[in-house]
Design goal:
Blueprint (H helix, E strand, L loop, with lengths): L3 H9 L12 E2 L5 E5 L4 H4 L3 H11 L5 E6 L2 E6 L1 H9 L12 E5 L14 H16 L3 E5 L8 H12 L2 H7 L1 H17 L1 H15 L3 H24 L10 H4 L3 H10 L3 E4 L2 E4 L8 E4 L7 H16 L3 E5 L5 H13 L8 E4 L4 E3 L14 H19 L6 H17 L8 E3 L1 H4 L7 H18 L15 H11 L1 H11 L3 H20 L6 H24 L9
Parallel strand pairs: 5-6, 5-10, 10-11, 12-13
Antiparallel strand pairs: 1-2, 2-4, 3-4, 7-8, 8-9
Bound molecules: arginine (ARG).
The site of arginine (ARG) has 8 residues, from loops.
Length: 549
Amino acid sequence: MFDYKTLIYNSAKNVLNGLEPSDVTAADAFCDYCVPCFKFAKILRKSPAAIAAEAAAQLTIDGIKVEALNGYLNFTIERESFIRHAFDKAADYKPLDGKTVCLDYSSVNIAKPFHIGHLMTTVIGGSLCNIYRELGAKVVGINHLGDWGTQFGGLISAYRRWGDEARLNERGLDELLELYVRYHNESEKDEAVAAEAREWSKKIESGDPYAVGLFEKFKAITLEQAKKVYRRLNIEFDSYLGESFYVDKVPAVEKKLQDKGLLKMSDGAEIVELTDDMPPALIRRSDGASLYIARDLAAAYYRKANYDFDKCLYVVASHQALHFKQLFKVLELLGEPWAQDMVHVSYGMVSVEGMSLSTRRGNVLYLSDVLDSAVEKAAAIIAERNPDLQDKTRVAESVGVGAVVFGALYDGKLKDKNFSLESALNFDGETGPYVQYTHARCRSVLAKAGYKPSQKIDWSQLIDDEAYEVVKLLADFDEVVYTAAVKYEPSVVSRRLVKICQAFNRFYNADRIMCGGETEKARLELTLRVADALKRGLRLVLLDAPEKM
Ligand code: ARG
């Protein structure tokens, strides 16, 4: 947005000795500023009111009305000037140019279905990738696969006992989930099952070709399903290096810990004692198995060495808060200055209309099922609202999936959510479909008018309250995107999108667009700006922007 503050400061400092940049503050109204004159009273030996009045008399700034009131110097931006500045296309806004951001998100677990519990990490991470990229950063999206652990031994053993290749090929993850649940139940009752599982898990570790082959098959099945979901969500990863990749890189971490005198033995296990009332970090169990945090330490070093990140974000549920606190602390104790660049982007729980989440017992809600159901509902709504729409299937997909994603990204990320598809699909609510529909409405107005962007617009045609409100919401959209990046909070963008739509719809109802002459041209230009901003914002929060709905 145009920097009025600096303009005001640079002009006012000539008439107010001792004025500092911080003395110019944004007043209550959005685009207005003021300078309280009280602090000058002592030095100048005059009343604040007199100082303000004298300064106001001496000061003229193009496009800004200057007034003195009750010891304040008030600056009101003239609407026409504001609009001109807002729509004078400045150079591309790339405040994060040259920065590299690693984003560890979604990070699914092999042989587990892609359930609703992975929705938040996936959409927050995917959206942050788009936001950072748009701001000029180089982004590395990483799916840190959960592909290491004793459960895979259990799965192989279950597959051999009760599974069958044809059924696995046909049913994929459903079969794996059932096998896993069965393994889990039986191993609780029968120690032999658990022992066999341990054997298989050792075989995977030692690279036994049969065991590794089966595991790779489970992995392929899981990723195939996950990638289908990612395509629907408009998400792509740059890396799928999972936990197993880091297993042989743990010894190098242990060496660093050893060299710093940080590695302690406790009952045969390797630990790092931590300060700050944290339990110690468990690096290696007494049976020789490395732990989750050890692989994360190795991954952190790998990322720093390979990407030289300025920030490394982990979009992971809040229940892993302690894990990340410990991880960052160990890196700090190791003396790595970049430990400060690691951030746990935490978020709350999601449930869909009261269903609880537990993969363990097979009581799972698949994300793809939630998306399908939203798309089905969207198709029904579209068939009713616009039966002649071409490309209905594609639009229903965009609207249905978009409703779920936008719903997930609309509240602050830490808030627990209970999802209702009905309200997420409400075309008149604060929803994805509402934003998509407003976008399509803008496009249809433009198409009907046959509007071609014109060079000269008379901005004074947009100074009425309704149009001006829209302008204001577009004017600082770049800064809104930046705020979302700094706060790791895509909802900052989605909320602004809804505000723009609400303001546009008020404008659309109050001001006739097709009214001829310069006014019509200016209103169409505003409509185009709105459409472009909505399309851009929708993409930032992973949604399509259909041209027609
Ligand atoms: N796979 C883990 C889970 O589903 C999340 C991994 C997060 N990333 C990491 N580097 N620890 O809970």
